[in-house]
Amino acid sequence: MTTLDKPAKAARPGRPRKPPAPLPPFVDAFLDMLVAERGAAANTKDAYKRDLLDVAAFLKAQRGGTALDQASSDDLRAYLDHLSAGGVKEKAAVRTVARRLSALRQYYKFLVSENGRAEDPSSVLDTPKQGRSLPKILTEADVGAMLAVAADRGGPEGRRLTALLEILYASGLRVSELVGLPTKALTRDARALLVKGKGGKERLVPLSQPARDALAAYLPDRPYFMVKGREAKQQAYLFPSRSGSGVLTRQRLGQLLKELALEANLDPAKVSPHVLRHCFATHLLDHGADLRSVQKMLGHADIGTTQIYTHVVEGRLKQTVQAHHPLAKRKG
Q1: Positions of the region Disordered (predicted)?
Q2: Residue 309 is among the residues annotated as catalytic for this protein
Q3: Are 284 and 166 within 8 A, CB to CB?
Q4: pLDDT single digits (tens) 110-166
Q5: Do the Cβ atoms of 169 and 143 come closer than 8 Å?
Q6: Is 250 a known active-site residue?
Q7: Is 218 tagged catalytic?
Q8: 185 and 304 both lie in a single domain
């Protein structure tokens, strides 16, 4: 019997998919509240959902099947202790514990407000202390080298990358804000961007002249990055892409910057969109910008978040004094 004579194999029935586990009581309503009242993004909503489901799974397995909405302070403290001893690196464990505790506090606060329970069991739990690491930054010369390499590439790809890099360095946008920029974010005079940040808050971000020039050079190339038949939808974005999503993704932008770092003889591990955001803030402060202005441009709700950059500047000032002040060289 030849291969052609062999009867075709019957299709194997696929395994029935398990229905998703039902959410614990009130979690669905809590997540809807985050979106409706606080303008939480889809990623933020998913993160809260994962955190609460993880707590619920622990309570079910380790605390006698206790339901999330019925957990006591001792139950939650046991979960946080379990998390801290989970074998992850110490700094990561502290950050994870703090984030999960924040999710729990917001969930139980919502529960009390909706008469889901009388008291908040998370209110007596202590927030773990976490060291605050200084942000990684590049020197002004490093950024200049990357810009020079991008400009040398030429063509639509080079002009788009130059525009992305100039905007990142000139505005300090979050990577999600940059890749998701709608075309209408660019003001009529092309001197600023109207950016929608965390919580749906809008802010006006001025563009430097080099950033405006790079953007003007790139805009005629936008059709090059569009897919035939999908142009109508892609026209809405400042940075469309031929990828499946139709827009440039955070991951792809990160890859492009690392490739650029290699060409500029920089360590690619030290380069990312977020590092350029740090560079924007630090270099501004280095050149005399006030902290409140930097806070507004970064879109920080709390100036305490922005103050981390003052430590970087202070460290540089101390090094300068120690290296050049005559009294610093005197031995006791």
Answers
A1: 1-24
A2: yes
A3: no
A4: 999 988 898 999 988 877 765 555 567 889 999 999 999 999 988 999 999 999 999
A5: yes
A6: no
A7: no
A8: yes
